[in-house]
């Protein structure tokens, strides 16, 4: 058994170096985000427009296609399409429910064409009702509707068989005045080539970001061209790209990084190539869809050309920046540093301690601002705001607690502090027990987060900013201190370490995965050291 040792200059110097390293990395990233990135310009002045964009009206709070009672007003649709008419010639809709059957009439008024979709799923009765309504609209607005799309990624979702889809498509072709197609991911067209016999167009989805092997932005448009040529070689029907695009926010997938700059670059480069080659295409999507975050995580909500306020997210000509300035992050860093130093007044310590606390406070303030920016994009419901907000607040509290951390205050195991609290002695907890309770809660939260991200990573963000400050305060200082840990904390440390390594091994070049690996290992390091030394 190793007795707890007091904090000394070695602990504080380690914390200082680690905090400076974090500030340097984050500072470089922030500066890079403010740099204008040149890219291909669309010739808007010459009348160049996008061929088509996917339109879903669910941009306002509470709007979702899963709400069967929801009816989108004509006024909202008119406002949406008026904004889109400035940048595109056409919109694609995926169903004719919830007021979307008003789109062809409004599109006619603003000069847009429509790719009209009939939603197909496992409900056969609903499918026929939807399809009959779509056929009626397509015939009534044949001057507006370019094509009727019978089903979207139905084979991908395994909700209908190929034979059932052919039956629905043949039913529509016998009754509608416009061409008929079916839309699915390009691989599924290659798996079901005979389906092309039933359609007038072959409509494929090519999304480099969502490929099984995600494609980096540098090769994204070239990848689309390769797939387009490959699919085109299998069919003698006209080929349309029914969905392609890039997200502006969310979790990075290997080399595929969501960002506003990358989204702008992809759209502008793709459109340039598509117009040059004469491709028929539709971009996903017109407007950001917050409801999709429940299905696809943060990234699902940010594929739009326009934000939920209908303002363009990026220009279609001229350079694009990820961030307009760094005033808020700098203010957060300065405020955090000042607050930690003010809290440290009246406590004894060396210059190394004061410098470490100032730099750790700066990291905490910067992490608070960046974490808040991420929360506004990612957190989806009151439960998430309550739970993740509490974890974030506890993490920032660790920096404030470090400012009052006496050199003679060893941290107690969380289990001992919890036992004392349950015994009704909450007000009588020592500073070391409070710190132990705080450390234990954060270790448990980190272990759960790491386990979830390891087991189900596709739609989960890397929660680096929630655990960055605790990793510095408890991980770095704890490495040089013989701190006692309970069995529960050791288990949490082991789970965190194993899961962050496992997550990184599957995407070793992903900077977000690397940041999560470093954060998790630093936070868990003292626990692992205690296990190795068999501390009690």
Question: What can you tell me about this protein's structure?
Answer:
The chain has about 525 residues and is α/β, with parallel strands linked by helices. About 55% of the residues lie in helices and about 5% in strands. It contains 18 helices and 8 strands. An 8-stranded parallel beta sheet has the order 1-2-3-4-5-6-7-8. Helix 11 crosses helix 13. The longest helix has 28 residues, at about 350-380. It is elongated. The model is unreliable at about 1-5 (pLDDT under 50).
According to DSSP, the number of beta strands is 8
Widest sheet: strand ordering? 1-2-3-4-5-6-7-8
Could you give the distance between the termini?
5 Å
- Percent strand equals 5-15%
Radius of gyration (CA) equals: 28 Å
What is the structural class?
A: alpha/beta
Instruction: Give the topology string: H per helix, E per strand.
Output: HEHEHEHEHHEHEHEHEHHHHHHHHH
Tally of alpha and pi helices: 18
What share of the residues lie within helices?
Answer: 40-55%
- The poorly predicted ranges are 1-5
Keywords, separated by commas or semicolons:
53% helix; eight-stranded parallel β-sheet; 536 residues; disordered N terminus; 7% strand; single chain; 8 strands
Describe this structure in a few short sentences.
This protein has 18 helices and eight strands. By secondary structure, the protein is of the alpha/beta class. An eight-stranded parallel β-sheet has the order 1-2-3-4-5-6-7-8.
Layout of helices and strands:
Blueprint (H helix, E strand, L loop, with lengths): L8 H25 L19 E2 L19 H11 L5 E3 L10 H8 L2 E6 L5 H17 L4 E8 L1 H4 L4 H12 L6 E6 H6 L9 E5 L14 H13 L6 E6 L15 H18 L2 E4 L9 H8 L26 H17 L7 H28 L3 H22 L10 H9 L8 H25 L8 H16 L7 H20 L4 H23 L3
Parallel strand pairs: 1-2, 2-3, 3-4, 4-5, 5-6, 6-7, 7-8
